[in-house]
Design brief:
The protein contains 16 helices and 25 strands. The protein is an alpha+beta fold. The chain is globular, with a radius of gyration of 25 Å.
């Protein structure tokens, strides 16, 4: 399954992330007509990432005529995945479609619901899922352009649009089936200085905030590169203004951050689509589609191509059929993100995080970093990895407000031996990483099952049991040991104190129907990476550039140093993506 372009449609119904509202269910015909299905309209529901996905499928006697759905899935991940699968199912009249990489939870739930409607209509889901004899789509690729962009997150898409608008031809390659990368994982806003919306804000003016102030905030970080920080600060305001022309309506949001020496007056937000990151990605994705830039998804870039002088002239990528395709250009941009999905590489550069999982949704296995290193690219601070203390493998972050009880959970944390090992809390990564395999489990009762966690029960990330033995069996823990641990905790806290570990809040007994899930410490953001100069050219240890090779976003190092200022991760990707687009377009011309 190769798709030239996959993006989210803007939904008419603001409360729903699906592309169309499902029609009212209708009664099927009393008797099946001759054919594969009993004609009619059927509805089924399955648990997606953010809640239930309700699918309505219309059948004639011999065909699936239409599929619509209602959901709250993320517009830049789940929605385009379900749109693409809808198109493919109807075109092929087959359920032999693949889950969309990067949107597995949403696509699996969507397909489960469609299969259910097929069964209701008297069809055979198993027969329709057989892939034998299914012809593979043959794609004819456009393989030459001025600029080849590898990676379809914030940095890659911003660079592609910027270069295209300056007259350069661009081909963008994305490893997964959806655009947006890990940008959507950002939970806060974006840092910038002296954008139009900031200069018009009284608080910003009163604070005498400035480009120099943003430089100072960023330079609080150890090992931050002064030239990169200066380039970021000086260009960041123009990036906000550009995003505003795409329809992002930013507001100034003053931040107090104890990790820095002063308040952050540089944060901007627009949470229209749920978060600032998703709002920006939605607008940029729509602009990319409108531009007509050639985009190939499911393209796994693995080798840079060089000429006899060592100049980078292209990249070879493997498509979803296992075939290599070489794309040639005057310059290549690496915008492949971090390497959270490459646990071996994480453990290699930072042994303390060998047991870490990741909350990254994109397939970030570090190809950009590895390809650049093969050509002699310098790197910096590869061990500087920001962790997130509560990540469910395959799902992502569990934010503290979603925990049963908040920062001090009304729950027990146990390890693989079903033993309690710490005072339960949110910021306890070292205690978690010290456990066997970095695997621990959160055990809690039905009375604290909140709305934030309920969707995870339906999708199978949270298990439930009528008692400790049943829950232990589903989690793979020793039933007797888990019951013993629960009994010991209940006895200990009967007097209102936690003598074993000293937890001082939410000391309620663990009893009745129980819930539990496995989680670990997530490798969340990568401050280190390939070194670049202020024009985003990749450089070697001696400071010389690798001709034709550029990089932007989380694949790079030097800008953040060893610590990331909240808001500067998004700023990094969009701003240096913009700088890269301009620089590469100038070189192409």
């Amino acid at each position: 399954m190769n798709r030239k372009y996959l993006t989210a449609a803007v939904c008419a119904a603001a409360a729903l992330a699906g592309c169309s509202s499902a029609p009212a269910p209708q009664e099927s015909t009393p008797e099946a007509e001759k054919g594969m299905f009993t004609p009619g309209t059927y509805t089924a529901t399955a648990a997606g990432r953010n809640g239930d996905i309700t699918v309505t499928t219309e059948f004639s006697a011999d065909a699936i005529e239409s599929i619509s759905y209602e959901s709250q899935e993320t517009e830049t991940i789940g929605v385009p995945a379900m749109d693409a699968m809808t198109e493919e199912i109807i075109a092929a009249q087959s359920l032999a479609v693949d889950s969309v990489s990067g949107a597995t939870i949403s696509s699996d739930a969507f397909l489960e619901a469609v299969r259910d409607t097929v069964k209701q209509a008297g069809g055979d889901p198993e027969a329709m899922s057989a892939s034998e004899g299914k012809e593979k789509e043959e794609t004819v690729y456009e393989t030459e352009a001025d600029i080849i962009v590898v990676g379809g997150g914030a940095a890659g898409m911003t660079a592609a649009i910027t270069a295209h608008n300056l007259g350069a031809s661009v081909i963008l390659l994305e490893k997964s089936a959806v655009l947006g990368g890990n940008t959507i994982c950002s939970a806060n806003g974006i840092n910038a200085a002296d954008s139009a919306v900031q200069l018009a804000d009284e608080k910003y003016q009163a604070a005498q905030a400035s480009v120099e102030g943003l430089e100072g905030l960023q330079m609080n970080n150890p090992d931050a590169d002064e030239d990169l920080v200066k380039a970021f600060a000086e260009n960041s305001g123009e990036v906000i203004d550009w995003l505003g022309t795409l329809g992002v309506n930013f507001e100034v949001d003053i931040q107090e951050d104890d990790r820095n020496s002063e308040q952050n007056y540089y944060m901007l937000k627009d949470t229209t689509d749920g978060s600032t990151a998703i709002t920006m990605i939605n607008k940029v994705t729509a602009e990319l589609k409108e531009s007509g830039i050639t985009v190939y998804t499911l393209m796994d870039a693995h080798d840079l191509v060089t000429d006899e002088t060592g100049r980078v002239t292209g990249v070879t990528a493997m498509n979803d059929q296992g075939e290599d395709v070489t794309f040639s250009g005057k310059t290549v941009l690496l915008a492949t993100g971090g390497f959270g999905q490459n646990s071996d590489l994480v453990g290699e550069v930072n042994p303390a995080l060998a047991n870490a999982v990741t909350d990254e949704v994109a397939p970030t296995t570090g190809e950009g970093l590895l390809m650049a290193r093969e050509l002699g690219a310098a790197t910096a601070n590869l061990d500087a990895i920001q962790t997130f203390p509560h990540v469910v493998p395959g799902y992502g972050m569990i934010l503290p407000f979603s925990l049963p009880g908040g920062f001090t959970p009304d729950a027990l944390y146990v390890n693989n031996n079903a033993e309690r090992f710490t005072a339960e809390g949110f910021e306890i990564p070292d205690a978690i990483l010290a456990q066997d395999g970095g695997e621990v489990y959160c055990i809690f009762t039905e009375n604290v099952l909140n709305d934030g966690l309920k969707p995870l029960v339906g999708s199978g990330f949270i298990q439930e049991g009528e008692n400790a033995a049943e829950l232990a069996g589903k989690l793979g823990l020793d039933p007797e040991k888990l019951q013993e641990t629960i009994d010991a905790f209940n006895e200990d806290i009967a007097d209102g104190t936690d003598d074993a570990f000293g937890r001082d809040k939410n000391l309620n007994p663990i009893e009745g129907k129980l819930y539990g899930y496995r989680f670990g410490v997530g490798a969340h953001y990568f401050m280190g990476g390939v070194l670049i100069n202020e024009n985003t050219q990749v450089i070697k240890d001696d400071g010389s550039v690798i001709d034709g090779l550029y990089a932007a976003g989380e694949v790079t190092g030097g800008f953040h140093g060893t610590f990331r200022v909240d808001g500067s991760g998004l700023g990094d990707s969009f701003t240096f993506g913009r700088i890269a687009g301009r620089a590469m377009a100038a070189e192409a011309q």
